[in-house]
Every structure is written in C-alpha cells, then in structure tokens.
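Blackboard transcription, Thursday session:
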Amino acid sequence: MKIVDSTPISPAAARITAAAVLVLLLLLPLFIRNIYWIDLGVTVLIWASLATAWNISGGFAGGLSLGHAAFFGVGAYTSTLLFLRLGITPWIGIFVGAVLAGLLGALLGVITFRLKGPFFVLATLAFGIVIHIINVNWRGLTRGAAGLLLPFRGGPQNMLFLNLWAYWYLALGLLVLTVGISAAIERSRLGYYLVALREDEDAARSLGVRVVRSKVVAAATSAALAACVGSVYAAFIQYIDPDSTTQFELSVQIALVAIVGGMGTTFGPVLGAAIVIPLGEILRARVGGGAALVVYGLLLMVIVLAAPNGAIAGVRLLVLRFRRLIQSRGATDA
Amino acid sequence: MLDVQNVTVDFVGLRAVDHASFTVEQGQIVGLIGPNGAGKTTLFNVVSGMIRPTSGSVLFEGKDLSRLGPADRNRLGIGRTFQVVKPFGGMTVLDNVVVGALTRGQSRSDARETARATLDRLRLGRFENTVARSLPLALRKRLEVARALATGPKLLLLDEIMGGLNPTEVNETLALIQELNSEGLTFLVIEHNMSAIMRIAEKVLVLNQGALLTEGPPAVITRDPQVISVYLGEPIEST
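(Written on the board underneath:)
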C-alpha cells in the first residue's frame, strides 16, 4: 500500500474560516428581512448544535447513538416544566436539564460501554424509545400527547423574545458554546482517548486508556449539551409535545445530520445541518407531500455517495486540490 | 518482578493454557517459545489483562493483578505489543504514540516531545505525519513497540515483532532491545525467529499445548531433546 501522509488544512486557515463564518452569521440580520428565512436560520443553528452535541459521543467516540432525542427531550421538558410549574426561568432550567440529561447519559454510558457496533446502536435506540413512551404516558407530568404550551410571560428574563432575531443570537451563542466544547475535547487528552478507543479498543486499553471513564464522560457531555439545545428549542417554538422532542425519527435525523456533514470532525455536523435542514425545509415548502420525502431521500443518498466521509471531507479535498492547482500554476509561472 | 502462578485458561472445549507457572526477574530478557497454538499469545493476554484466567494468578512487583484491567496494568508498568498489529489506523504515526505518552499524565506538548523522541529511537521519525494504516507491516510492528515504549513501562511484552524482518532489521531490533534492557527495562519476548531470541534471552520458556514444557538458558534449551522433538524438529545451528 502507498504510504500516505496526513494533509491537514492548517489550523490557522481553519480558524480564519470559522471566524469569517461567525462574523457573517452575526451580521446576517442586516441583510435578511423575511421571517421565513430567519425561522429557517434559527432551525439550522439549533440542528447544528444538536448534531455537534451528538458528535462528541457518536463521532469522536464512535458510538453511533440512535437515542439522542431522549436527551433533547429531557432538556426541553425540564426547562419548560420548571417554568410552568414553579416559575423558574428557563435560563436556570437549561442548566437543570443539562445536569439531568448528563446523569442520564452517564447512566446509559455505564450500561452500554461494553456493547459494540449494532448492539450499541440497538441499546441506544431502545433507550430512546423507552423515554418516548414514558413521555407519552406520564400525563400527570408531561400532559402526554397534548403537549405543553409556553405562555408568553415576562420576556427576555424568561428566554422569551418578541423579536425572532433574538432567538437567532441565542441559538448562535449556543452553537458557539457547543462547537467550542467539541473543539476543546477534540484537542484534549480525552479527545485522543476517544479516537484511540474508536480505532482499536484493545490497543487503547493496553496503552493505559481507561474505557469506562472516557466513554462515560463523553456520553454525559454529549447528553448535557443536547439537553441545552432542547431547552433553547422549547423557548423558540414555545410548544413541545412528544412528537417534536423525543420521537425516534428525531434521533435518526440527529445522527443523519452529523453523518452527512462528517462525523468525528468538529465542523462536520455544523456543515451537515446547513445542508440537510434547508434541503428538507425547501423541499417540503416547494414540492410538498410524499414527493418531497422521496426527493429528500434520493438527494441524501447522492450526497452520502458523493462524500462517503461526510461533506466536510469533500470540502477538504476541494481545498487541497485548489491549493495544489495554485501551487502548480505558481511553479509554471516561475 | 513478574510472577505467573499456576495459570489455566479454558476456552470452549479447549485448554489454551494449562497450569503454567514462571517468573521474570527485574532486568531479564526472557524468551517465550513454542509451536503455533501452544498458548503463548493467550498467556500474554492473561498477563496484560486482556483476558481473565480460569484459575491461577499473576503478580507484578508482588501485587496481585487479578482485579485489574489492561489499562490499570499498563499504568503499573506493563507494556505490550500485539502480534496482529493494532494501530489507530486513522491517526498519524505521531498521534498513535502520543496516546501512550498522554496516559502517563504528561501535558499534550510534553507527550508530543516524548512521542517524537520515541519515534526517533525506533527510526520512525520521518513517518510522524504518516497515516498509520498506510504504513508497511514491518513499520507498523515498530509502531507497536514505539507506542508501548511511550507509556514508560517497566516490563515490556513483545509478541513476534521480528516476523517478516530481514536480517539487518532483526539485528537492529535486537540491538535496540539490548540497549533498552541495559537502561533497566525488563522483557518477555514471544518469538518465532529462534536464532534471534537465543542471542538475547537470558532464559527461555518453552510452551507446548498450553503447558510449560521446560525452561532454562538458551544453550540448554537448544540441546534439550524434548524441546527439539516437539518444537524444533531438528537441531538448530548456533549463530
């Protein structure tokens, strides 16, 4: 086999690109007036955060979870119920939800860390479904399928805003937080351990990597961040029910966004959200009905076939080719 | 230093290791030989904690390891390589070794320093940015050693790291083992390359069908008729 050198995009270039994108996102309100697009934008940011949270355990640690809607739901319901029943502001509720989901994630991690491949996937799937069933049936707490409506009380101090752009900045702040934590983990000791465990668990253990501790910390962090996204989502939509928070389809979509964008990379899930969510929305609005879903499915297949390691890997390849092209131009000019 | 006491490993319908007992003293290079399927790698897996023995125990520096997993045993100072190499394929060669250094509590920059020094020592320095899975097998075997060394072990278990190496490479590997040994590292070495192991080992253990057949200095082992009949088939040339 050919000896291949790793050819990373320089960290400086990546940082500049990320900063440029962030500035663009911060200034976007100056250019867009249409409520429909703002709404779509906030939805994309929320999904980007959610997929980034998923990626910490699903991508870095390689434990493909199909139960993450459970954590999202715990976040959404915790902050909403605390607000409705006890009048506690979602600004505090979001942390309570994160802690609860973190503990739940750690528990799931302790139970499932030994499971490999499809068995791990099935365990997370079952966990997600159990949480959904509890959510639907525990009417005394969650009001079941009737859902919970957030009354507009108090405004900003309760994470409720009249201006849609406020949610844009809220979701953007959350995205910066999740991506920041994700990037920090990737470069940390834990990040090395998780990737090592994903690549070869036996080898990692023989080098002193503690399996349970690493996987449980990743699972808890991932779950806690997913819960934060759930709280922000609830404040944005102001109505939550089991179908929109803990349903199985939602778990699949979370994994899908990260996989399409590029699991195991910091920016892949963000790119995935920027591709998948608008695609689904626009198709639903312009095509509609069953046809939209068929086209949506076909387009996703095309994307996955074209960039099997995720869209971010495709982008990376293009950048490297472009750079080589410039270099060879430079060489012939000289 | 290492005390293997009456270890038996039963797999379904097969006794892989049969009441094996031996010791490795601080500073020794001990060879572990035997025909294919004799249970050598299984024994390594017991010592490194990858599998639990059916009965018997392993002591390291007087401490019973029974309740410790591979990670904790490594942290006590037992390093190992795998016969079927297990690189972290998607990582660079450098990052593979960094993982080993990180578990010793080094900061990331210190770990990179340690990893670079270790790679240089194994003449893998120029491959530090190479994607590990693209390395040729001989170099991947060396990477196994580099990674284990970066954890700063007291005892290093080498599982057939000389398979497929040419004579020059074998000599270099032997020189490295001896150099590390002179710095205080103890070795337990599984090897099929008989002349190689006989040149460096102070003591050789012969395993046959899971049981320890005999043990002794290389000169005695190579002349032992029992060993010759089960394993060597013919007397080996002294080198």
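Lecturer's comment: The first strand of chain B starts at residue 2 and ends at 11.
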